[in-house]
Amino acid sequence: MDVTLVAQGLVSGVLFGGVYSLMAVGLTLIFGVMRVINFAHGDMMVWGMYLAWLLATRLGIEPVLGFTICAGALFLLGVAVQRNLVDRLGDAPHEMQILLLLGVALVLENLALMVFGPDPQRVRSRLALWTLWIGPVFVDMARLVAFVVALALTCALWVFLQRTDLGRAMRATADNPYGALVVGTDVRRVYAAAFGIGAACVGAAGALVSPILPFSPSVGLSASVASFNIVIIGGMGSLPGAFAGGLLVSVAESLGAVFLSPSMKELVSFGLLIVILLFRPTGLFGRRA
Amino acid sequence: MTRGALWLGAVAVAALLALPAVLNSYGVTVFIFIFFYGYLGQAWNILGGYGGQLSAGHAAFVGVGAYTTTLLSMHWGLSPWIGMLVAGVLAAGLGAIIGSLGFRFGLRGFYFVLLTVAFAEVCRIVTLNTDAMGGALGLYITFTGNPWHLQFQDSRAYYYLALALMLLATGVVAVLERSRLGAYLLAIREDEDAAEALGVDTFRYKLCAIVLSAFLTGLGGAFYANYLFSLQPNAVFGIPLSVDIIIRPVVGGAGTLLGPLLGSLILSPLAEVARIYFTRPGWTGLHLVVYGLLLISVVLFLPQGAYPHLRSAWTRRHANDA
Q1: β-bridge partners, A134
Q2: B52 touches chain A (CB under 8 A)
Q3: Whose C-alpha in A64, A279, B72, B197 is 20 to 30 A from the C-alpha of B303?
Q4: A245 or B318, which is more confident?
Q5: What pLDDT shows up at residue B24?
Q6: What CA–CA distances, in Å, run from B288 to A98, A112, B112?
Q7: Hey, is the C-beta of B301 within 8 angstroms of any chain A C-beta?
Q8: What is the CA angle A71-A15-A262, rounded to 5?
Q9: CB atoms within 10 A of CB B197
Q10: Alpha-carbon span B87 to B70, nearest angstrom
């Protein structure tokens, strides 16, 4: 096996992992705080991608900057879904939440299909024209930028959760919603914020990935499944777990594409999932449920 | 079940048996889909409705069933009548694997849902990339019209076959409702911790439920293959089929005997109308948007599904008559 090829796979795996991590961080935040699995996660990402595409093609805004607008729009969508739909369920059994969000996923995916059509799109970014060479290994600028921004956003989220009042309220609610309510936390506001931030994360991830991979409305499902895998592997509800899981899965897929075949890369992450479920079902960073 | 309900059921079955005599061929097709999705919904109901274990990847079992019968018949000339049972067993085996992974260590709900989706996706990807299984092009069955190959010139034969499958699954669920297994499943659905505390082996019964449900769904896959004559990985393993399977029992009333059938009676003709009118350019996807909105509305406004409401309306009218 060619060492350069492996090094190349490793580098692109790590760089792409940033986006995976950001996706999974959004999902795990929503799950950790509210015990809700956002089945519409990947489809929210698709809307992030198309928003970035609209911004780039209509207004000439590069996704590197446009991701802020995408994140903002998805934040509003997330808050709206939480306030108007999830919140109304009250104490209904969790399968009702899942069905509800499956409904949201269907609506989002197929609205995208109706508006943008089934043909794959890609954002032409000027960044994609630059590459950096480290010896024989090349670094794609668009990936590097996506990685740096995703990393920065995850760190910002971490600081937000540790240092701000709202962030503390979120962690408190995640630990014990009833206790948080008793000490006067506005739990509904915390939930809306958590869903909004989770959706914003995946919206930003969508914008960042839009110059790297071609996309169509149907990629939402595979993005959802990828996020689920990562979150289970990392440990559901754990932020560091989602981050590490994202990098791990991305590197594994990238190396899988080198060693096996590119079409088999999803199977590598799935194999990883099964191994984790067999030997450490709470995930790498998970606490007991 | 009351005597009146039994009579009603007998009349309904008799009417369905006689129905093809007055239906045109299009009507027969619509009813075949009503029965077929009613059947799949009923199979899902065992695990999702009674057991409360939401599978969002039941398409995996349909696909395994469909591909198994077709490949066996193509390569070894095995009749789909026998291949169907092999298909059911293989689907049940897949169900056992998913169940034993997903139900281990007291992992609850969420893991299971994600796992079912992931398994269905993996089946899809593997099939897409396996040339021996037709790859992305899929498999096509040549029509011989030989009943031994589960192929019929007359679509009414499929009508009766689909009806028989639906009645079979409904019979299985009716027996299940009265059995110990059924009682255990209800206990698990309502409060798993309490059930476990009372000594119910929750792992074992959840596993029973998924194996039974997967077996029946696998049989359905065999029917699917031999009715439509073509198999594409995206169609038989895709999430839209899983949603098609889930949405009928949920709309009709999950965890009730007649809910899946009622749901299919409501939704299958609608899906057929949607397929005809919404497939124009620019309209593709609209019927799934409608499905999504329907799912959201049912969950928010009619969380028990339609059947319990129909039932209480019926008993009220009867009470007034008496």
Answers
A1: A137
A2: yes
A3: B197
A4: A245
A5: 84
A6: 17, 11, 24
A7: no
A8: 105
A9: 9
A10: 9
Write the residue in A236, A261, A281 that is nearest to B104 by C-beta. A281
In chain A, domain spans: 3-279
CA-nearest residue to A31 within chain B is B110
Cβ contacts (< 8 Å) between A230 and chain B: which residues? Answer: none
How many CB pairs lie under 8 A apart between chains A and B? 125
Q: How many Å lie between the alpha carbon of B165 and the closest alpha carbon of chain A?
A: 27
Cβ separation B56–A37 shorter than 8 A = no
Residue A173, min C-alpha distance to chain B (Å): 19
Query: What residue in B sits closest to A278 (Cα-Cα)?
Result: B101
Cα separation of A200 and A221, whole Å? 18
Q: Look at residue B257 and tell me if it is in a domain.
A: no
CA pseudo-torsion sign A114, A146, A142, A213: negative
CB atoms under 10 Å from CB of A138, counted, come to 13
Contact of A118 with chain B, judged by CB distance below 8 Å, is answered with: yes
Please report the DSSP string for B266-299 in residue order: HHHHHHHHHHHHTTSTTTTTHHHHHHHHHHHHHH
Nearest chain B CA: its distance from A273 CA (Å): 9
Give residues 82 to 101 of B whose Cβ lies within 8 Å of A.
Answer: 101
From the list B114, B122, B293, the residue facing A228 with the nearest CB is: B114
pTM, to two decimals: 0.85
- Please say if the pLDDT value at position B75 is more than 50: yes
Judge residue B301's burial from the number of C-beta atoms within 10 Å of its C-beta, 0-12 exposed, 13-18 middle, 19 or more buried: exposed
Q: Are residues A278 and B101, on separate chains, in Cβ contact within 8 Å?
A: yes
pLDDT in tens, B39-70: 999 999 999 989 888 888 899 999 999 999 99
Q: Do B292 and A118 touch (CB under 8 A)?
A: no
Q: How confident is the model at residue A289 (pLDDT cuts 50, 70, 90)?
A: very low
**B106 within domain boundaries:** yes
The closest of A175, A177, A157 to A240, measured between CA atoms, is A157
Q: Quick: pLDDT tens for B188-232.
A: 888 888 888 888 888 899 999 999 999 999 999 999 988 888 888
DSSP letters along B36-104, please? HHHHHHHHHIIIIIIS----S-THHHHHHHHHHHHHHHHHH---HHHHHHHHHHHHHHHHHHHHHHHSG
Q: Which of A48, A10, A53 is nearest to A26 (CA)?
A: A48
The structure tokens 């026998």 sit at B82
Cβ distance A106 to B295 less than 8 Å, yes or no, reads yes
- Asked whether residue B95 is assigned to any structural domain, the reply reads yes
pLDDT tens for residues A62-103?
A: 888 889 999 999 999 999 999 999 888 877 777 788 889 989
The total of structural domains in chain B comes to 1
Return d(Cα B2, Cα A15) in angstroms, integer: 65
B289 occurs within a structural domain: no
d(CA A269, CA A232): 11
Interface check A95 vs B, CB under 8 A: yes
Counting DSSP H helices and E strands in chain A, the numbers are 11, 2
The CATH number corresponding to A3-279 among 1.25.40, 3.40.50, 1.10.357, 1.10.3470 equals: 1.10.3470
How far out from the chain centre does Cα B68 lie? 18
pLDDT tens string B245-265: 988 898 888 888 888 998 898
What 3-state DSSP class applies to B305?
A: coil
